[in-house]
Fold each of these.
Amino acid sequence: MSRKPVPAQSGERSRVEVNFDKPQLLPQLFGEFDSNILALEERLGVYIHARGQRVQIEGSAEAVAHAREVLQELHARVIRGEEVDTGLIDAVIAMSSEPTLTGIIKADNGNAPAQIMIRTRKKTIVPRSVAQTQYMHALVSHEMIFALGPAGTGKTYLAVAQAVAQLITGSVQRLILSRPAVEAGEKLGFLPGDMKEKVDPYLRPIYDALYDCLPAEQVERRIASGEIEIAPIAFMRGRTLADAFVILDEAQNTTPAQMKMFLTRFGQNSRMVICGDPNQVDLPGGPPASGLNDATRRLEGVEGIAFSRFSTADVVRHPIVGRIVEAYEGPNA
């Protein structure tokens, strides 16, 4: 692999060589046509040259050290069976700039970091940011979790994945997935069809996460049997949700009365996750009218309830999504 060097970042120029074992895995690390290496060069301002098991990194001392750390972490993830793509590269780069994950989550039997992951029928999911690591730990250690932050940070997706994993293992008997049927800034008018067909457009993101974690035929079968229930929040009134993993998505669009009603449905042997972006409220009156913001103010610090907060730095969709969110919510918004 030989290319024209990328201009290095400011600072003393440096060159290091990294030797990798398991050479059979290097094609997965480098990507098709070295696409992953090219992405690292572009993002970190270094030049990377690979020959056999040896990889040479050239650039400023700071950039070279950063690139070596990222490459070694990506190699470790390939060994664990993860697929390297630009999303993972961006996540590892972001994580390497934050406090180390080591020590955040400890194994029960010692000081080694525990491997935090969620296993479903279709994939094994691992965290892609420090905030996701803390959130995934909260999902297994708390009965009620509020996940707060912008779009694209994995709040709902990870909650659905954890719910599917617990349903598969029999830890819960049902999945109940809900969100308020609030129009996002536009009037949709009359929607044809029966009740399911009327509310399905609002619940599409939940379906998408389900189909990503379970084969389609299992999703349909479990919905038909009642193991998986997907419904607007109004359908929760008057019920006690026991032996269930309950997720409320787009919770910022609940009213305080709806939120109180939903939270008090909590039953024995259940887990409840409330996901939402406190700044993206589609209710008349904006954020002050949001049941999510009201509940956060009332419940933070209450024993047994965890709060996981995400920022634009935790966005794991295309990098441009994080920049868009920052433009809308940053200091110049």
Amino acid sequence: MTLTFHKYQGTGNDFVIFDDRAAQFDTADHARIARLCDRRFGIGADGLMLLRNREGYDFEMVYFNADGHPSTMCGNGGRCLVAFAKYLGVVADDAYFLAVDGPHAARVEADGTVRLKMIDAAAPQLAEVGEADVFVHTGSPHHVHFLDAEEGYTLAEFDVYGAGHDIRYDQAYDPAGVNVNFVEVPADPAHPWPVRTYERGVENETLSCGTGVTAVALAASQRGAASPVRLQTPGGLLEVAFQAQPGGGFADVWLSGPAVRVFGGEISL
């Protein structure tokens, strides 16, 4: 079977996308999905998404990590899929779709920015790994570590792969594991917060992670950051807006940033 694919990226977080409204894609063939995401033997991507029909919604988002397995919510992926839906003519500027963590609203702005409404989140909880670390669930589970000046290194120098791998597989997060975000605290909390992320399922650092920067923004609010929070990833700048709730949680959480079609083609499956 030959299918047309599309490659999208949101601040360097890249995805292979298929228009699967005819429901022809074999979602059980995890090895084939992993091959399609392979950067040497396939198209190459951090994840793969299907756009499918779903009654009551503009479309459904079906997401797989680069290892070929279904995963939790992907924020940059959701934003890219909204841009793809507009490219197909499935939606105009506003979208309402279903993902693995529930319904999401989104909007494509005139400048190409895609704003995605994330799920409400509980207050950041102290993590079981590390003294200055917190855990936040933003549709995907995230461990957030703030680099302190006394640690003696900058985020650019930090071993994200090594430290991220260790925390991702720490027994505190068995059996599913966790995504791990490392944050450099800016001198002025109104300035962009530098973030680097190790993603489970990719098992490496990615250039950006949407649910990750959302977790960082919510955690940073406990360190003086006010909504909206700007976050600088290696792949570009993202913004997270939110409303803090009296009980310590967060509502009306929106992730904003670019979502760009890179290229498309055909591939035999």
Amino acid sequence: MNTVRTTDEESAGARKVAVVTGAGSGIGRAVAVELLTAGWSVALAGRRPEPLAETAAAAPAGGGTALTVRADVSRPEDVAALFGAVRDRFGRLDLLFNNAGTFGPGGVPVEDLPYEAWRHVVDTNLNGAFLCAQAAYRQMKEQDPRGGRIINNGSISAHTPRPHSVAYTATKHALTGLTKSLSLDGRPYGIAVGQIDIGNAATEMTAGMQTGALQANGETAPEPVMDVADVARTVRHMAELPLEANVQFATVMATAMPYVGRG
């Protein structure tokens, strides 16, 4: 079921409209709250309604309008319903933050990774990103005024893998190709597409890094993390650029994380 939180002065037609996938926790929640605080109308998409409601409630009163939509991005019918709900509620779409993703089983060597686990990561991280981008692209191309922006959530792993991360790393590399192709194909229609590669933002997914993460040399060592709010502000900056300007790729990470020189 979809739920709506509105401001006292309903002016959704004058607001910028965003879809944030994986909005129930972590980076998705932080970005959604940042956009709502800035006055955007935001469709919060995720598989579980309760965390989405918590995200909507976390935004301060007087901000933008939140629409929660239960959706599994790996299911084409769910994606179609999500973007249909956004079109019906807000009439247009200015931003897709393609954020939903999963790391998959942690610490599993490639020879032991079950195919089902590989397929789940691919379906969520890559196929889900494609389905959402396709739906957003169609709407942005046809709406008036035409155009919009898609920001894909890549990863440091889109450049440099961690040990035992074959499914996650492969999908994030593929996401970079998706970003480049969408960016090129969107030019005639005013659709700007970029990617943010994030390293060690403090979320549930990275909770164990401060106590110890497997390194390329086989040792386990703690890693620094950064405030997820810094990621959210970076996404907002990318989102609020005029469509004539685009951050094609951005890397935001904990300053001292073992990325530059990893291995």
